[in-house]
Amino acid sequence: MNQAYIELQLQLHNTDPSFIIAELNEWGFSGFDETEDLLKAYIEQSIWSNVQTELKRFLASLPELTIVAEQIIQQKNWNEEWEKSIQPQVIGPFYVYPSWNKKVIPTASIPLMIDPKMAFGTGTHETTRLLLSWLPSVVKKMDTVLDAGTGTGILGIAASKLGASSIEGFDSDPWSVENVAENIEKNEVVNFKAHFGSMEQINPAQKFDVILANINTVALSELVPVFKKYLKQDGSLLLSGLLSIDIDLFTDQVIRDEFTIRKKNELGEWSALWLKPVVY
To answer: Which CATH architecture has domain 5-82?
Structure first.
């Protein structure tokens, strides 16, 4: 007899789905399907019956989402269904594709083979796209790069393919370091080292030409002053994961007179900043 599943449909409000996906994965959800503002999450009915009361209470406490539907469906091949949802994307000069893609890679593009983990989204969220589109103008040959909150490693791998001499990355989620290692190998990148943990994993004597950080407003508020200590005087700090409605407050309270804004860009409800340090 096939195992039945519960499909939970969640309306997302001004939030990166990767955060919600990570939380649901901890509750036992085993498949996800994202659209622009709707997330479908799947969990075995037997597991759901044990956790639904507590989980619904938890979800109700999150202003970032609303439960809009719940239904029972029969078993599917979640890997196959999920892989179908991930299509190649052109982002600036980059052609981002999964390893199972059979389409011809455009000859003029920079290929990025990125296999995201099923439990953590596709790796090409709007916040990532914002930074990828800037990288060719920011990363120069022989630059040293720090990829903070590296996720799938897509930004660090892109920096390597643009000619960066070395890349260091870190992430506090254990899945990330494993995923980065897989994607580094698939892209034949040899100068990208990923750490599990926080900025404490990075040598404080190290200075970077470019620091990339696609995280969230709260984490960035704490990290921006630290980033400046690791950034060369003529370096660039690229931030994403900032909601556009929060950007003015963020710049007033966090950026202040420590950086100048070289560029600001928006995509959907998200904003990114390209910052240059103010040298006293």
So the answer is: 2-Layer Sandwich (3.30)
Give the architecture (CATH level 2) of 86-277.
3-Layer(aba) Sandwich (3.40)
Tens-level pLDDT at each residue, the chain (280 residues)? 456 888 889 988 877 777 788 788 888 887 787 776 788 888 888 888 888 888 888 888 888 888 888 888 766 665 666 677 778 989 999 999 998 887 888 888 999 999 876 544 455 788 899 999 999 999 999 999 999 999 889 999 999 999 999 999 999 887 788 889 999 999 999 999 999 888 988 998 999 999 999 988 888 999 999 999 999 999 999 999 998 999 999 999 899 889 999 999 999 889 999 999 998 7
Provide the Cα torsion 21, 26, 28, 33; round to 10°: 10
Q: Kindly tell me the burial class for residue 199, based on how many C-beta atoms sit within 10 Å of its own C-beta (0-12, 13-18, 19 or more).
A: middle
Instruction: Output the six-digit token pair for 203.
Output: 């040598």
